[in-house]
């Protein structure tokens, strides 16, 4: 039995695809384009879904308190909700009023969540 060797025609050359650095970057950008578009639509669509949800607080779901001299978030929390844990009330007041810290100013108006304002 003899082995038969198949070879390409001597006039046909096979070449490998060679990409330059710029070609690789363009190929990577083209490949990443659908993922970037999908991510963009998800972010935009998710933001619209959050903004349009009815889970937000109604306009009349809080009462206001004006800060007097010597009052702190802790003392206000104890005053408006004596039966609740002051830490939870302070957190809820801070979150509702978007406070960065615990510093208050005399005359400042704070919104008190309805769940704690009802105890008053």
Automatic annotation (TrEMBL):
The chain crosses the membrane at residues 26-51. Keywords: Membrane, Transmembrane, Transmembrane helix. It comes from the Bacteria. Gene3D superfamilies: LysM domain. InterPro entries: LysM, LysM_dom_sf. SMART domains: LysM (SM00257). Residues 63-112 form the LysM domain. This is LysM domain-containing protein.
């Amino acid at each position: 039995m003899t082995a038969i060797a198949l070879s390409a025609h001597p006039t046909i050359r096979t070449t490998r695809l060679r990409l330059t650095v710029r070609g690789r970057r363009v190929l990577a950008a083209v490949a990443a384009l659908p993922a970037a578009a999908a991510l963009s639509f998800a972010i935009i669509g998710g933001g619209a879904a959050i903004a349009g949800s009815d889970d937000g607080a109604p306009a009349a779901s809080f009462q206001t308190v004006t800060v007097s001299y010597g009052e702190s978030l802790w003392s206000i929390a104890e005053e408006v909700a004596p039966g609740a844990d002051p830490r939870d009330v302070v957190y809820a007041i801070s979150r509702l009023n978007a406070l960065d810290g615990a510093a208050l100013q005399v005359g400042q108006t704070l919104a008190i969540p309805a769940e704690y304002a009802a105890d008053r």
